[in-house]
């Protein structure tokens, strides 16, 4: 391959990398804007609940602290979005410069020049990869630090356990999805991307938090009066509570995964009455939460 052809190939690689970097920067900016809107709405709800209903001073101070945490979270997303934007701009400038220099490259084969250009591509990709690592870490932080009221509660004080769509309901299974699964499905499967936050359906005490056979990583919460809710197939390392923890309605207890006997990323959600599984969709609907 001639040096000029190699230079064109390198310039095209840099252009492709710049396009991908710009896509990531745009996605990060959209995430920041969405988080800003969500945190502002949640912050106002928190302050209104603390000061608009006759709560004491300590409750008000607690609300202010939660607003500060929300602001901190969005600040982190803003910083990450800015870093990705800077990286994208840098990549675009390198690509433009490479194209301008293509015509100046002689057609004879200068191996040293080709090697330098290829090293430039490797260097640019390394910088983008480092920023992607920062974004991934920031995303996990956002999940773990979500406020208790990040999900809307019903009037009865219950929350949707995960945002997604139902793929398998409660009841007999004529066709088993996997060998080893039971003939009767004791829960409701809700499809969601791995890493999606999972919320406590209502307040209670965590009684189990760990591996549980075919259910994979499992969390069981006792809500009193014989009511329990269970959350299965959580991601490896995705259990964010421990046995004995007190949780509130809407608090993050884990993240979606596909551990155990699972055909893909989803939450297996169960409701027990006096130890017996019941239809979670019917039970939750009676408490103002629709699982669809």
TrEMBL record:
Boundaries of every M23ase beta-sheet core domain copy = 184-279
Please list where the region (Disordered) is annotated: 1-22
UniProt GO MF annotations: metalloendopeptidase activity
Q: Which organism is it from?
A: Agromyces intestinalis
Taxonomy, superkingdom: Bacteria
Q: What is this protein called?
A: M23 family metallopeptidase
- Sequence intervals crossing the membrane: none
